[in-house]
Structures are given as structure tokens and as C-alpha cells.
Amino acid sequence: MNRREARIKAFQILFQMDNHDIAPEDAMKFVMEGEAGHEFTKELVHGVITYKEEIDRAISSQLLNWTLNRIASVDRTLLRIAVYEINYNETIPVKVSINEAIEIAKEYGEENSGKFINGVLSKIVSDE
């Protein structure tokens, strides 16, 4: 499993948790379907869970006339993963984190999800 696939699995796990209020272990079992978990997937899931409040504050601070709860679940989940990577994983270049979030949004989100995510992440990065 490459890092893109690991990100997609982490996205699916966190999306399940966000929308169905289930425990991380149960979401992992559901998404992984018996497949061995990739360490990067586990890092992203546990990292987002651990720093969720700080991540959500960082995202919320860049939203104009929006609240975090009004953002589509796909976009919110991808933003959380990307902000975790940007703020808490120094081994991943910021451009890679942003690009990966945009590309996954194009696949799983709505028509303008990629542009929205790019805008929010660009603001977060420029404020650092």
C-alpha cells in the first residue's frame, strides 16, 4: 500500500467515525476488511483523533461565514488529515499534503471540493 492509498484508508476510517459515531477500532475493521493496517494509515487516524480540537480550531479560524459543522463531511475529513500532516508531521512536505488532499477531494468530494480545500489550506499555511 502506498501513501496515497494509506491516506484514502485513513480518510475512509475518519469519515466513518465522524458520520456514524463509531470507535476507531471498529471503523478500522470495517474499512480495512481484514487487510493489515498500514502504519501511515494508523498514524493519520490516531494523529487526527489526538489533535482534533487543535486541528478544528486551525480550520475554523480560516473559514469566512462558515462553521466547521457546515462543511461537507468529505471536505472536513480531508482538511483534518491535511492539517494534521502540515502541523504535526515534519517528514511530509507541505505541498505534498495539500496536493494529496486536493486530489482525494476530486475523487470523493463534490465538484468544488478541491478548490475549497486548496483555499483553506493555503490560508492556514500562509498564517504560519
TrEMBL record:
<comment type="similarity">
    <text>Belongs to the NusB family.</text>
</comment>
<dbReference type="InterPro" id="IPR011605">
    <property type="entry name" value="NusB_fam"/>
</dbReference>
<dbReference type="InterPro" id="IPR035926">
    <property type="entry name" value="NusB-like_sf"/>
</dbReference>
<dbReference type="Pfam" id="PF01029">
    <property type="entry name" value="NusB"/>
</dbReference>
<dbReference type="GO" id="GO:0005829">
    <property type="term" value="C:cytosol"/>
</dbReference>
<keyword id="KW-0889">Transcription antitermination</keyword>
<dbReference type="GO" id="GO:0006353">
    <property type="term" value="P:DNA-templated transcription termination"/>
</dbReference>
<keyword id="KW-0694">RNA-binding</keyword>
<keyword id="KW-0804">Transcription</keyword>
<comment type="function">
    <text>Involved in transcription antitermination. Required for transcription of ribosomal RNA (rRNA) genes. Binds specifically to the boxA antiterminator sequence of the ribosomal RNA (rrn) operons.</text>
</comment>
<dbReference type="GO" id="GO:0003723">
    <property type="term" value="F:RNA binding"/>
</dbReference>
<protein>
    <recommendedName>
        <fullName>Transcription antitermination protein NusB</fullName>
    </recommendedName>
</protein>
<dbReference type="GO" id="GO:0031564">
    <property type="term" value="P:transcription antitermination"/>
</dbReference>
<dbReference type="InterPro" id="IPR006027">
    <property type="entry name" value="NusB_RsmB_TIM44"/>
</dbReference>
<feature type="domain" description="NusB/RsmB/TIM44">
    <location>
        <begin position="4"/>
        <end position="125"/>
    </location>
</feature>
<keyword id="KW-0805">Transcription regulation</keyword>
